[in-house]
Specification:
Layout (H helix, E strand, L loop, with lengths): L8 E4 L5 H12 L3 E6 L4 H4 L8 E5 L5 H15 L4 E4 L15 H29 L2 E6 L3 H4 L5 H21 L4 E8 L5 H4 L3 H8 L10 H11 L11 E4 L9
Parallel strand pairs: 1-2, 1-4, 2-3, 4-5, 5-6, 6-7
């Protein structure tokens, strides 16, 4: 099966990171015109440029409703529409036991990881509804189901994304908009590598697939969910974990 996104315009948030980069490249490979956004400065230098692929770079803070509104309006004006949204932007650097947990950092996790996805979804929704076709993928996490030790803000925000996904799927069905979530496990990205080699070696032993995931593992599934072929899939939450959640059954 070949995924063909020719003529589609995609917005990928959090594009400077490993998964966001892989998703952006995979969508562009399939023919989409991709606008890659991130809060990082010099985004064009952080995300590789691929010859022959239609990719543009724009700084955007998903936590800012003003930022999101401006960028989505700009994309619609330049590209003539917006068909695909991948809510990938997120943070995972707030670790502390409950007695030491900073409430402000918890709120920040919710604001970026969950409210940011709401901002972006709300901004693109009228355009997708008017066209009668749209695809939204929310990048959740397997921790949405099993929790994340010493990271309540992260796991709570990712669980919230599942609720948002299902609620929008209910509304979007009659409008031609599908909304799904992807739940990565341990993927080889910078936030995961910070845990150190020994921790990851131990964790890998719990993964039936016998390895950590790669960003491309997530990107390929995302590309399918935003394709024409996935038009009858909505409200789903699909794990990309190598089976790590099976270990606790």
């Amino acid at each position: 099966m070949r995924i063909d996104l020719t003529g589609k315009v995609a917005l990928v948030t959090g594009g400077a990171g490993g998964i966001g980069r892989a998703v952006s490249f995979t969508l562009a490979e399939a023919g989409a015109r991709v606008v890659v956004t991130d809060i990082a400065e010099n985004l064009g230098d952080n995300v590789p440029k691929h010859a022959g692929r239609s990719m543009r770079y724009r700084k955007m803070d998903v936590g800012s409703l003003f930022d999101v509104t401006q960028v989505v309006q700009e994309i619609a004006q330049i590209e003539g529409g917006l068909d695909i949204l991948v809510n990938n932007a997120g943070i995972m650097n707030n670790f502390a036991l409950m007695k030491d947990h900073d409430p402000e950092l918890f709120i920040r996790d919710i604001h970026v990881n969950l409210i940011g996805a709401f901002h972006c979804s709300r901004a693109v929704w009228p355009r997708m509804a008017e066209k009668g076709w749209g695809r939204i993928v929310n990048m959740s996490s397997i921790t949405a189901q099993g929790g994340a030790f010493a990271a309540p803000g992260y796991s709570a925000s990712k669980a919230g994304l599942l609720g948002l996904t299902r609620t929008l799927a209910l509304e979007g069905g009659a409008l031609g908009i599908t909304v799904n979530a992807v739940m990565p496990g341990l993927i080889e990205t910078e936030p995961i590598r910070r845990h150190g080699a020994k921790v990851l070696e131990k964790a890998t032993k719990r993964i039936p697939a016998g390895r950590l995931g790669r960003p491309d593992d997530v990107a390929v599934l995302t590309a399918f969910l935003v394709s024409q072929q996935a038009g009858y899939i909505t409200g789903a939450a699909v794990p990309v974990t190598g089976g790590i959640e099976l270990f606790s059954m």
